[in-house]
Amino acid sequence: MTDNAFSNPLEALFSERSAHIKQSAVRDVFDISVQPGLVSFASGSPNLKALPVEELGEAARRVVVDHSAEALNYGVGTGMDQLRKQITEVMALEGAENVDWETVLVTTGSQFAQDIAAKVFCDEGDVILCEDPTYVGALNAFEVYRVEVVPVATDEHGIIPEALTETIRSLKAAGKRVKMLYTIPSFNNPSGISLAEERRQPVVDACRAENILVLEDNPYGLLKFDGKPFRPLVADNPDDVIYLGSFSKILAPGVRVGWAVIPKALFRRFYLAAEAVVLTPSTVTQLLVSEYLTSIDWRGAISESRALYKERCEAMLAALEREFGDVEGVSWTVPEGGFFVWVTLPEGIDTYPLMREGIDAGVVFIPGVAFSPNDEPNHHLRLAFSNVTPEQIDEGFRRLKPVLMRAIEG
Ligand code: PMP
């Protein structure tokens, strides 16, 4: 490329790697979706209106004023021991009762941990397996390391273990180095699908048999609408799975606190890589989260939010049934928790241009291409119900229906 291709000659200095940092289609839409009057089915943020802000404010004051020596200083690279121990209680609520607190690393959100995982395990050309569709942020984090992201076969019950083994073997036979399986086993973002209980251990076993690490991304795990949460993969497989957790969906994304549970043998390398980037996760927000877990009924808050998301999900499924129930070729997933419903339109429709039409009609969603490991335009779209009331959902569907019907009727 010649120098005059750049508006500033310093742009010629960008690393080759940096050209692979993609702009997230989802983030673009976020900017649009804050426009007043728009019904947003786009944002996957939690319902912050339910947060006990007064109590959190008091906790924040205590952190900064009463614990200033600790709160305002550097911390330790692993995160604070006190919070690491409390995180094991959060894991226990999810069914992983025996997590050793010394295997918990506090992270600056799980997005950060995805980057570190790719950094410490993958060289250029290595393969990361994933579901299709999968979380756009992980795709963006991985692609910077020039890895090959390869989807594995799934159905409405998640990854098919036998197909996973076949995929791994054929990639290996083709000379590829397959390093890990990135999976969102509970309430996948964007599909809403969960890995069936009877497939959970076979998926880990398939990876173990081929010496492949499982990266379990589970920010929605506690947000199952009914009954006990799905047992995380890490619970029975602490030596095979790196588990990523987050306070973003059960407390607030703004705190930027998450965690990783890491097999003992891998912990040191992982944490040194994290430390090299952030030195230490934010002490202020770690203490804030710790105070939250000490002084606020967080289990009660989580169960209230489960009920709220269940109500919203039901409103969205009812709206889908009402507006599209008898439209041929339109189907959708029925999630058991989390924030998202994944809608399929008839084959051949590209949902990307429809996003613009939706915005013009006052409703916004994310087109399926954003979540495609191969960047393939497709006939799917993601609808988030976490941030919209049942009334807004109904209004959103009144606006969405003509947009989608025009595309369906050609
Ligand atoms: N993983 C998944 C599956 C997500 O949906 C998100 C947030 N949208 C993240 C990770 C990022 O979480 P955090 O805020 O902890 O970085």
TrEMBL record:
Cofactor(s) needed: pyridoxal 5'-phosphate
Coiled coil regions in record: none
Residue ranges of every copy of the Aminotransferase class I/classII large domain listed in the record: 39-400
Key words of the record: Aminotransferase, DNA-binding, Pyridoxal phosphate, Transferase
Superkingdom of the source species: Bacteria
SUPFAM superfamilies, per database record: PLP-dependent transferases
GO terms of biological process kind: alpha-amino acid metabolic process
Subunit structure: Homodimer.
Name of the protein described by the UniProt record: DNA-binding transcriptional MocR family regulator
High-level lineage: Bacteria, Bacillati, Actinomycetota, Actinomycetes, Micrococcales
